[in-house]
Specification:
Length: about 300
């Protein structure tokens, strides 16, 4: 079913409890570093492989407790690993990490207190593997990504799995198989906050189980004020077995399905104030696995006359 009417406000679907998002910005205690240090890092303009220099600087900065500042310019690098206490920052739109290969651009595993802000991660259109991404984080406590650009990934943009205290705000993901994916947040942890991001120009990957989605959530989460454009599958996809899910005030344009919600939680997930246009197979659909079931829930709610 093709929805051709003008943008439709989808309000009040579901009975879930709303979350106060503001407290999540401060819960990790980050108020902004007072000092920055480049640890001798100088951009090469992409001419040479700077992986070793960057990795050494990341490790030194984390050990010292200082943020690592990347001066404006292009840094050509293979996969970089961040360890506990890493804070990587740059000049928004000008501090560019350009991918040379190696299964993803930045990886974080079993770490705490990780922060990225003001960076450009450019994948150069390269394949990073089925589970690869420009940034992949697993088993991280306190992860914050803000004001970054994740561009031209041949795989995923941002993939977060089994992390706690996750805040992803004011980023741009442009051209990826999946824009932002957050899964398996630890039970009892605060809901992940996905706020004010722009995700656009997604594409299918035949080898991936999940592809073409703007924002994919299988975790307790607040997804608010995001824009998703040009997603060949779902604008936002919500998985099963979640208790606390709030999807509010997002704008979704040019998708196959605007919002897909696992049938198990379709009546309890809170969906309100979302604007959806040009959703070819429905604005909001209950999903059983990969298959939509029943009518468009927007129609069921009396929103679409």
């Amino acid at each position: 079913m093709t929805v051709t009417r003008r943008e439709t406000i989808l309000a009040g679907i579901g009975l879930g409890v709303a979350f106060a998002a503001g407290s999540q910005f401060t819960r990790a205690g980050w108020t902004g570093p007072g000092r920055f240090n480049s640890f001798g890092v100088v951009p090469s303009g992409g001419a040479t492989d700077q992986t070793e220099m960057l990795q050494s600087a990341i490790d030194a900065a984390a050990g010292s407790g200082l943020p690592l500042f990347l001066p404006p310019g292009t840094y050509s690098t293979r996969r970089l690993e961040m360890r506990s206490g890493s804070h990587l920052t740059g000049v928004p739109g000008q501090s560019i990490l350009h991918y040379r290969g190696g299964g993803g651009l930045i990886g974080v595993e079993q770490a705490a207190d990780i922060r990225l802000d003001g960076l450009v991660l450019d994948g150069d259109g390269r394949d990073m593997g089925v589970d690869g991404a420009l940034l992949a984080a697993t088993l991280v406590e306190r992860l914050q990504l803000s004001n970054c650009r994740f561009l031209r990934s041949g795989s995923g943009g941002i993939l977060v799995s089994r992390c706690e205290d996750v805040v992803i705000t004011s980023n741009i993901v442009d051209k990826a198989a999946t824009g932002i994916a957050v899964t398996n947040v630890s039970q009892g942890a605060a809901p992940a906050l996905i706020l004010g991001n722009l995700v656009r120009n997604l594409f299918f990957r035949k080898v991936a189980l999940s592809h073409g989605n703007g924002i994919a959530i299988d975790a307790d989460a607040v997804v608010k004020g995001n824009i998703v454009e040009n997603a060949p599958a779902f604008g936002i996809l919500i998985g099963p077995a979640r208790r606390d899910v709030s999807i509010t005030d997002n704008r979704i344009r040019n998708t196959h399905i605007g919002i897909g919600v696992a049938a198990e939680i379709a009546e309890t997930a809170r969906l309100a104030g979302n604007l959806i246009s040009n959703a070819q197979n429905g604005c909001i659909r209950a999903m059983r696995g990969p298959t939509p079931i029943g009518p468009d829930l927007a129609v069921w709610a009396g929103v679409l006359a």
